[in-house]
Amino acid sequence: MPIVIKICEEGRPAEWAIIELQGDLESRGEGTFCSQFIGDLHFTKNNVPVLIVGHHILYGKEVKMEKPFAVLEKHILDTQSHNDEKGAVDDFHVEYIVKAVIKKKLLFKTRPKPIIANVPKIV
Amino acid sequence: MAGRYIRTIEESQVVINHAKIDESDLKSITQPLYFSEHADEFEKYKFIEIDPTLLNVLQEGEKLKFCGLKDENAVLCTRNKTYEVKEAETSNSLLLLSSLKWSDEVDEADTRTLEEREVCGIFHKYFELRPCLPQLHKLRSLLKEHPYSGPEHEDEDVNQTTGYSFEGLLARVQASEEELQLALSEETACCINGKWRMLDPKYQLRVLSLILGVVEENSWTFDAVVKDEVCQALSEIVPAEILIQCFSWYTEPVGETDSNGAALYRIIEAKVCRFMGEMILATVEGLTLENFITAWQNSIPEGMKLQTSYMDGLMLVKKVNDKEIVQYFPESDLPINISERFSVLFEIREKWTYDEIYPFIARFASGNMNVGALLTKFARSSKSNGIKCYTSKHGR
Description:
heterodimer; A: mainly beta; Immunoglobulin-like; 4-stranded antiparallel β-sheet; 8 strands; B: alpha+beta; Arc Repressor Mutant, subunit A; 6-stranded mixed β-sheet; DNA-binding (chain A); cell cycle (chain A); Ctf8 (chain A)
């Protein structure tokens, strides 16, 4: 069965953004990322984005994406259980909503530079 | 969860100092980034790379579809195009934000302010789309499941379940609606009682011969055929819906009427000749070119003139012991993956001229990639006896 992708009810999808970092972010301590603070994003007066994460500073640039992204959100419409040769199967009836489009990103592709100072302890 | 850490302007400024940045070089809005409370649910989102055309299609409110059965790679279909869907992975981290101020949206002000931004999740994967050909092989085999060979062969009970409706085909074949529609007419598929089926070639030959017979009996020229009279003359022999479709494959309206006001149609010579030629090629093996041409000439109505180009994409001529032998080689049976197709072509023949190979790859040409460009990319060109030839890139 074809899976439908459609635009959100409100019509035009919102424009969202991506911040692209080289490598991975690691969580301080245990647990999930949920609600955690990541860092401060600034722009210089010359429009260079500056990201300070923990003890690291990154300089990036604003990039228009050659191929924009659509952000699809999965919706499960209903679940039907039925039996086939292999036994009971759950058939998910799914559709995707185009939640947003992303046309620009902030790209931080250079290695982070360390900040050599005693950064005050974060609670 | 315990109270979330709240960034203050002062903390932000301390870090700016530690980083040895002159605060006056920075614009006055700082955007502290947080993971959202639901950042662990980010998997409900998928990124899909779209080109500006697709973006417009979406913004105009058109629905797109992922198509494919469980054992097939997914494709994405718009109303008129098909795209292959491939998952891509990046080692970079993509942080998704539902709002962000870009450099030109950050105004200058005297005092620093903080505007918090939420990151919905970190992504390393996205889907890429590549335009691809619709899955016509599958369509062809579905259409051939129940060939129609005349009303006398139809079992009334079976009739209800025989063949596929347009929707049924769309659900099974990875193709957009318009591509499917076009393919059905190219394949000369017939809609019988709402179900799409191929005519058995022998039956199709019979219907076409009957139509041509009516033309001859009435001594019409090939561009003054009266459709209504053809239908009337054959109404007892061929079911109307089949006759009308079959008539439409081999004729085109002239845009004029006869003295009685009936619309006139032209028999398309190329299509009639091609069908007759294909019938011969598909049934008789190993004919020499000369014998084929003779048989072909005998099969077409008097007054039509053969051109070998009518067989483009259906026939290959091979040299065997100084004899030219024709071979049935339908383009439609070749792989729909372009590099696989090139290897099949170079396997069957080492060297091709542009005109020879053209009908077998023309399907892949698109706006930014014509046949010449395809050959540059997938083949090697050389000159032999002053004639430009194409050979395999990975050739001997």
